[in-house]
TrEMBL record, chain A:
This is Sugar ABC transporter permease. It is a multi-pass membrane protein. It holds the Pfam family BPD_transp_1. InterPro entries: MetI-like (IPR000515), MetI-like_sf (IPR035906). Residues 99-309 form the ABC transmembrane type-1 domain. Its main location: membrane. It comes from Brachybacterium epidermidis. PANTHER family: BLR7065 PROTEIN, SPERMIDINE_PUTRESCINE TRANSPORT SYSTEM PERMEASE PROTEIN. Residues 1-29 are annotated as: Disordered. The chain crosses the membrane at residues 42-64, 98-123, 130-158, 178-203, 245-268, 288-310. Keywords: Cell membrane, Membrane, Transmembrane, Transmembrane helix, Transport. The keyword Cytoplasm does not apply. The lineage of its organism: Bacteria, Bacillati, Actinomycetota, Actinomycetes, Micrococcales. It comes from the Bacteria.
From TrEMBL, chain B:
This is Carbohydrate ABC transporter permease. CDD domains: TM_PBP2. It is a multi-pass membrane protein. Residues 95-287 form the ABC transmembrane type-1 domain. Keywords: Cell membrane, Membrane, Transmembrane, Transmembrane helix, Transport. Residues 1-33 are annotated as: Disordered. It holds the Pfam family BPD_transp_1.
Length: 319, 303
């Protein structure tokens, strides 16, 4: 039930190569990695070491310094120990952004994208074929659009004189100004709009691998639709649900552009999630060291989530 | 699911033959199923409409010189918005920069990924599992979180505002997933075919190029397009690493679009958004649903 299993041409003979391995190594060619055979891996390793590992190691250093674009730390960088972290933990704005990141992740990913994706995947199974095709195309279109475009589209949708207010005032409801009154909810909705397609694709791929006779026997046993969903579908889909939750959480944790375009973190930092807080500290205030300390915390949260994801991944993908 | 018992009547057989058994269709079903299908369709249409409105805005506003923030039918359809941005500075140069940045980075990613995936897919070695686990682990790392140290590092080594540096970084950031995906596709190419190439004296690189890669063309296309589309939409990386206006890709110029003219011309912004989005939409149409599944497989965890 891995999502990766949705990729085409998987599971062909070579994947089951394990049983064949021993006798192949007896043939002249062998399948052991030798020094010359590992040469092709060098470009990738160099790139990863220089541009991924390097910055991560550097950020561990930077987070303990007062490095800055201007001011004290700019001319001469010095070690400040855990000062940056202490500053962060005692800064109300930091905890504000931690709280907003939690709200954003739970509302838009765990609840919004996840449930809407599941609902869409379930509806796809039953709805008219043409309707399904058109609606899934629209949902996927929202997902493949560049982040900045999505940000503008949702900004115009929620803006004071935007589409949402045109529609709800037309049916006689009072206009809303979500971007001002509850900006974190507006950007959460935007993230649902942008990300629901992902969960939908994951769940619809997982659902299509559920044998229909399981439902039939449940139906014969007298289970209603809700009962069938909770005691048949959910248990079977549990691995897919867990993996999907992990992945959308990781994606949502690092959303920057969407919020940056829509609200810039405002008004008054009320939609300033951790990435935006980190950016503001590092560049608006020029505190690279402090910004990096916050980034490192974000990286640690991401790493923890990523480790969990690794544990959830089916064994065949790790061979 | 009434008609799937094995009584073998004509109705049953057509029922079983029509469509996949996994996706029950409404034809020939009882009233209960038909109602469920209708209700599902209606629910889908409602969700679809909610998703459609922002998309509708960008299309309608791009043809409307008096576009506002709200979705509205243009009082007069015109191409003036497109004409206004149809010049090098606003449209062509940013799009060319995007192509250079994302095309170059995709090339870097795919070449490095294919080369790296080959030994991973073909040989046994003790560090293989830890290496693969590290690669999968790093697909989950939020790239957003390393952009400040990357910026600081790039300032130090004088790579800031360099297209070359941005290409290398963007290429490296997409690499873990590309390796993971490519290795998966490569695993499904049977090794026996290569062995015959080896016995005829072809080297490893030759067999890789002329035997393995052609056999995994479709998988390679999925990985390449996935990589490219992900980069095309990326805003934060070029926003941090590129500074001078003549280097900026469309993702960043779209962000600065409003300030350029003082007042935001929403119609022009919509028209530019459409120009900027067309490549990924076309690539998606070209790949069809396979790409969607490639994306789903991908996890799309790039920040």
């Amino acid at each position: 039930m891995s999502i990766v299993a949705t990729a085409p041409d998987r599971g062909t003979p070579a994947q089951r190569g394990d049983e064949q391995r021993p006798h192949r190594s007896r043939s002249g060619i062998g399948d052991r990695l030798t020094l010359t055979r590992s040469v092709p891996m060098i470009p990738a390793l160099l790139l990863l070491v220089a541009f991924m590992l390097g910055p991560i190691v550097y950020s561990v250093y930077l987070a303990f310094t007062d490095n800055a674009i201007r001011g004290d730390g700019a001319a001469q960088t010095s070690f400040v120990g855990f000062d940056n972290f202490i500053d962060a933990f005692t800064d109300g704005a930091f905890w504000n952004s931690v709280g907003l990141t939690l709200v954003f992740t739970i509302v838009s990913a765990v609840i919004g994208q996840n449930i809407l994706g599941m609902v869409l995947a379930l509806l796809m199974e039953r709805a008219n074929r043409v309707v399904t095709f058109i609606v899934t195309s629209i949902v996927i279109a929202a997902w493949i659009l560049p982040e900045v475009v999505a940000g503008y589209l949702l900004y115009t949708f929620f803006a004071d004189e935007g589409s949402l207010n045109t529609i709800i005032t037309a049916v006689g409801l009072p206009p809303q100004d979500l971007l001002f009154s509850l900006p974190i909810l507006a950007v959460s909705f935007a993230n649902v709009w942008r990300g629901a397609a992902f969960s939908m694709l994951v769940y619809s791929a997982a659902l299509s691998s559920v044998p229909s006779d399981v439902y039939e026997s449940a139906a014969i046993d007298g289970a209603g639709p809700m009962r069938r969903f909770w005691s048949v579908t959910v248990p079977i889909l549990r691995p897919a649900i867990a993996t999907n939750l992990m992945l959308i959480t990781l994606q949502t944790l690092s959303v920057f552009g969407l919020i940056f375009i829509m609200t810039g973190g405002g008004p008054a930092q009320r939609s300033q999630t951790l990435p935006l807080y980190m950016y503001e500290q590092a560049f608006s205030y020029g505190q690279l060291g402090y910004g990096t300390a916050v980034a490192l915390l974000l990286l640690l949260i991401g790493a923890a989530a990523s480790l969990l994801y690794l544990r959830l991944l089916p064994e065949e993908d790790k061979k | 699911m009434t008609a799937t018992t094995s009584s073998g009547t004509a109705v049953d057989r057509t029922e079983e033959e029509s469509g996949s058994p996994l996706r029950p269709r409404s034809s020939g079903k009882g009233p209960r199923e038909r109602m469920a299908s209708t209700a599902s369709s209606i629910a889908m249409i409602v969700i679809g409409l909610a998703f459609l409105i922002p998309l509708l805005w960008v299309v309608l506003a791009s043809f409307d010189t008096e576009a506002t923030l709200s979705v509205q039918w243009p009082s007069r359809w015109s191409l003036d918005n497109y004409k206004a941005i149809w010049n090098e500075e606003t449209t062509f140069r940013p799009l060319w920069n995007s192509l250079l940045l994302c095309g170059g980075a995709t090339l870097v990613t795919m070449i490095a990924a294919v080369l790296c995936a080959y030994p991973l897919s073909r040989y046994r070695f003790r560090a293989k599992r830890p290496l693969l686990l590290t690669i999968i682990f790093s697909t989950g790392l939020p790239i957003t979180a390393i952009m400040i140290p990357v910026y600081a590092l790039f300032v130090r080594v004088n790579l800031i505002d360099s297209m070359f540096g941005a290409i290398l970084f963007l290429g490296a950031s997409a690499l873990p997933y590309a390796i993971f995906l490519t290795k998966g596709f490569m695993d499904s190419v049977p090794i026996e075919i290569e062995e015959s190439g080896w016995t005829e004296g072809a080297g490893v690189y030759r067999t890789l190029w002329s035997i393995v890669l052609p056999l995994m063309k479709s998988g390679l296309a999925v990985a390449t397009i996935f990589t490219f589309v992900g980069m095309w939409g990326n805003f934060f990386v070029p926003f941090m690493l590129l500074l001078s206006p003549e280097n900026l890709p469309a993702a960043v110029t779209l962000y600065t679009f409003s300030s350029q003219y003082g007042q935001v011309a929403y119609g022009q912004l919509a028209a530019f958004s459409i120009f900027y989005s067309i490549p990924v939409v076309v690539l998606y149409l070209f790949m069809g649903r396979t790409l969607g599944q490639g994306f789903a497989a991908a996890g799309g965890v790039k920040g």
